[in-house]
Amino acid sequence: MEANDMTRARNGDEESLARLLKDNYAFVMKYVWKMCGDEQLAYDVTQDTFIKAVQKIDQYRGTSKFSTWLIQIATHTYIDARRKQQRNEKLEQQEKERIQLQTTKQLPEEWYDVQEALWNLEEKYRIPVLLKHYYGFEYKEIAKMTKSRTGTVKSRVHYGMEKLRKELNEHG
Questions:
Q1: Which of 2.40.128.280, 2.60.40.10, 1.10.1740.10, 1.10.390.10 would CATH assign to domain 2-83?
Q2: With contact defined as beta carbons under 8 Å apart, do 32 and 49 qualify?
Q3: Is the CB of residue 95 less than 8 Å from the CB of residue 127?
């Protein structure tokens, strides 16, 4: 059935393509999860892998199994995601150092505590909290920026604020 679905999928049959992707989703997801050890990153990479597979289905030549082709895309997608993550971490560290150099004694002591607490927040909470409460974006806008669902953004802002309050109460 996979060979027939593959032929139809390459010829633009969306149902055949959907069936192929569905049949291989768990396999690819488990591979990526084992590769990176991060559940959320694994979901993101798997999603990006399947988007690329849909966009490039006409490039699949059938010289290997479809699942092998997907694994190849997933591997490259993960490597690209890690590079991007490392670049972002480096830029984040540089920004943190720049801000620390610019801050003066004129700022209230509480500002340092809040900034430190923000930096200690996991990125998945810190970014939505900053976008919502510092920059004033709406949940829907944040969801679009972070490529997340609106409900996920609301949840992350909520839990991020809880974590901030807890940390600030412990140190305050």
A1: 1.10.1740.10
A2: yes
A3: no
Please state which of the ranges 8-12, 37-41, 147-151 shows the lowest mean pLDDT: 8-12
Q: How many CA atoms lie within 13 A of 86 on its CB side?
A: 6
Which pLDDT belongs to residue 146? 86
Alpha-carbon Rg for the chain in angstroms:
21
Higher pLDDT, 98 or 134: 134
26 vs 17: CA distance, rounded Å:
16
Q: Which 8-state DSSP code applies to residue 25?
A: H
Mean of per-residue pLDDT scores for the chain: 84
- Asked whether the whole model's pTM tops 0.70, one would answer no
pLDDT for 110-125, tens place per residue?
Answer: 666 777 888 888 888 9
Whole-number pLDDT of residue 102 = 64
Helix axes 109-120, 150-171, angle to 10 degrees: 130
**DSSP for residue 5:** H
Reading the block at residue 112, the tokens are 């340092």
Second-level CATH architecture of 105-171: Orthogonal Bundle (1.10)
Cα–Cα distance for residue pair 143/150, rounded to 1 Å: 5
